[in-house]
Amino acid sequence: MIWNEKMECMSRDEMTQLQSERLVKLVKYVYDNVEFYRKRMDEHGVKPSDIKGIEDITKLPYTTKDDLRDTYPFGLFAAPHSDIVRIHASSGTTGKATVVGYTQNDIDVWSECVARCMSMADVTKDDIIQVAYGYGLFTGGLGAHYGAEKLGAMVVPMSTGNSKKLTTMMVDFGATAIACTPSYLLHLSEVLRDEGLLDQIKLKAAICGAEPWTEKMRTEIETRLNITAHDIYGLSEIMGPGVACDCKYHAGLHICEDHFYPEIIDPKTLEPVADGELGELVFTTITKEGIPLIRYRTKDLTSITHKKCECGRTSARISRFKGRSDDMLIIRGVNVFPSQVEAALINVEEVTPHYMMIVDRENNLDTLEIQVEVDVKYYTDEVKGIEKLTKKIATVIQQALGISAKIRLMGPNSLKRSEGKAVHVIDNRKLY
Ligand code: DLL
User: Fold this and answer.
1) For a substitution probing ligand 1, which of 183, 321, 401 has the most ligand atoms within 8 Å of its CB?
2) Are 112 and 235 in the same domain?
3) Predicted local confidence at residue 67, as pLDDT
4) Do residues 126 and 201 share a domain?
5) What is the C-alpha to C-alpha distance for residues 143 and 148, in angstroms, rounded to an integer?
6) Is 140 in the pocket of ligand 1 (CB under 6 A)?
7) Most exposed residue of 183, 221, 363, 371, measured as fewest CB within 10 angstroms of its CB?
8) In angstroms, rounded to a whole number, what is the distance separating the alpha carbons of residues 162 and 137?
9) Is residue 284 pLDDT above 90, yes or no?
């Protein structure tokens, strides 16, 4: 089923016209309401009146995560606080989170986009959907929740964790759809198998995202659970889940293009690349009110096509993600930057700035080990001392990253020094 045929199936010309009108309005809106953008545009010598249509978008400067960090917490908000009805946040590159705000209209648009995505997975008002993304500052839980409600489905707001309860309720409530990260769904399939519940579930579809996954993982999920699994994409800076999703043809993710204007650029030259070529995805939020962003560099690497899909939708499609142009990792669904570890360790007197993060996947759950080099002054063989310091670092890391890590203390000068750019991560998962 196509949730919003008018918007999802409009002709290219109509879409370009709509995007042009919306961009012109947006640029004036941010220029009038966000000091940061006013200054940026003045520096670039661009006036709102220079933007006459979507073809003028390349005249505008890019926005990055650092811009959000530098204006923390509300510096990029365009709407007055009295019009903001919700805040979400995700990891920043160092200590501070990236904060986003939504007006009621933004929440309505968001729910509409998620409803479109869930419809791509053939979820309807007759479905019972378990939302097992985290609820809270992370956009996954509430984003999926409001979209499923908009669809009219029966929503079970499980959040993450407590897999046994989730699987029991899956059977007892007869859940027909689930929204969660793909790795968590693989884990759930094992819990269902171990509990002997696999033949009692009524699941038909899964809406999986928030982290990279492969076609191999999709096949594994679909075979184990006898369902169809759809790839949903989004990021908190742009909105949250629901920016794009794949339909039953799995031939790329349809972007909600009437709200998010996509560009693909070469991350080095920052020049646009042609359809089909790999590059960094950039979005302009052409209808957003709370925190509209112009040419936001997602750092996600993909390619785009503007060809009509077999499903009938005409919206541009992006291919499954091929990596990132920065060093962000997603561990257990949480965005983690090595620089956050560095920032956290600086406050621990007993260790040096040398560390190594080792990421792996065991039983479909991500594991993180952080090897930390102890300062020669504090190095000890004494078990009690090691235990105390390990615990202290584990607490600091948990607070900084929002996820737990196994800490391994290393002797002075034991971690390999690199000659060029320091290597701080070994990722043994095969995600791209
Ligand atoms: O992960 C929003 C979301 C929630 C999307 C639930 C889908 C489902 P952030 O925490 O801001 O927002 O992380 C955004 O996650 O830039 C990508 O690198 C990655 N990501 C999200 N979805 C996918 C996906 C949410 N389907 C960052 N495939 C993005 C690959 C994804 N990577």
Assistant:
1) 321
2) yes
3) 96
4) yes
5) 9
6) yes
7) 363
8) 19
9) yes
